[in-house]
Amino acid sequence: MTATDHAIELTRAAALAAADKQAADIIAFDVSEQLAITDVFLLCSAANQPQMNAVKDEIERKLLEIGARTIRREGQRESRWILMDYGDIVVHVQHSEERAFYALERLWSDCPTIDLKLP
Length: 119
Description:
Layout lengths: L4 H16 L3 E7 L9 E7 L2 H17 L6 E3 L6 E5 L3 E7 H7 L1 H4 L12
Parallel strand pairs: 2-5
Antiparallel strand pairs: 1-2, 3-4, 4-5
Helix pairs in contact: 1-2
């Protein structure tokens, strides 16, 4: 089983939105074979809290434009890790320090990455 076309479409839209707000280290993993709850994990990082909020807001705005709504959101305001669950994809916006510490890329390194087609 691989990520659905819809999940990949949402992932690419979210990645582009994150890139528009200067998010760093944007990467997506197809976790559909390891997890039953979602198809894709999208990871990105930001240097500070205002940038994290800008990335979150832009992702939500872009995905809402194409009909996707968050099912659940965790870690806002003073948080250094924001998680947005869209069902088919889960977006992780992390502060750069948290990203280095938790190293989610290592955890999911056995999963295939998704070509985000970023400019």
